[in-house]
Each structure stands twice: as C-alpha cells, then as structure tokens.
Amino acid sequence: IQKDLVKALKDGEISDIIYGTLTRHIVELGNIQAGCDRIAGTPLPYSYSVLLHRAVYCFCFILPFSLEAALGIWTPLIVGLIAYMFLGLDALSAQIEEPFGLQENDLPLDSIVRLIERESLSSLGQPLPPIIEAQDNNLL
Fold first, then answer.
1. Phi, psi of 51 (to 5 degrees)
2. What is the pLDDT of residues 17-70, one digit of tens each?
3. Cα Rg, the chain, nearest whole Å
4. What separation in angstroms does the CA of 15 have from each of 11, 28, 71?
5. Same domain as 109, residue 130
6. What is the domain range of residue 131?
7. At 135, phi and psi to the nearest 5?
8. 110 and 82, same domain (yes or no)
9. Domains contained in the chain, number
10. Are residues 91 and 131 in the same domain?
C-alpha cells in the first residue's frame, strides 16, 4: 500500500497532505493488526486454565454442604442452578480465548470486513459487493 501511495504522490494524484494522512492511517492499521496478532497468538496459560477448572469444580462440590442448613430441601435445586452458571462461565472462558476463529461464537470478521469494504467503495463511487447474509442466524 505504501508503494502505491508513493507512486500516487509522485504522479501528482494525491497531495503531500493527503499522503501524510494516509501514511498515518496505514501505520495505525499495522499497529492494530499487530495487536490482533498478539491476541490471537497468546493463549491462556495452561496452569491458569487448570486452576480455573479445578476451582470451579471444588466450589461446586463444596457449595451444597455450606448451603444445606439454610436451604434445606431446596439445596439440590439451588446448587444445581449455581453450578450450571459457574460451569457455563468456565466453558465460555474457553470460547472467548480464541475470538478470531471460524466457530459460531467467534467474531464475524468476514462480515465486518465486507461492511468496511462496502463503505470504502461507496465513498469512492465504485460498485458494491453483496452483503454477507446470515446463515442459520450466524455471520462468519
């Protein structure tokens, strides 16, 4: 992209002010991409993940003993609901660990990129590519 900008500047297609602005935007895009690569390439440490799993299971195991005196016969139901929530949060943490994948719960990157592409092309007066439609209520 930088080579194209230098060529456009030399050919007089853009001014030096526009060149400077676009160069700053390109540098910022590079920084954003580097940040996303760091997020994608830095998994949760294994020991932290194991500790979280064990803490959730120990909590769910000990919880009925601490609530039995207060809840009586309702203890299994309440503990089941609380355990369901904590185990769900544990599973959710594993999903959130990889936001740039292609699973249903990951970010819809193709749709986001297509939206940016359409906005850029419409500002240039170019023909627009089709919008990415949801498949089974999911955008990928």
1. -60, -45
2. 988 998 999 899 889 888 888 887 777 788 888 888 899 999 999 999 999 999
3. 25
4. 10, 20, 74
5. yes
6. 101-140
7. -115, 120
8. no
9. 3
10. no
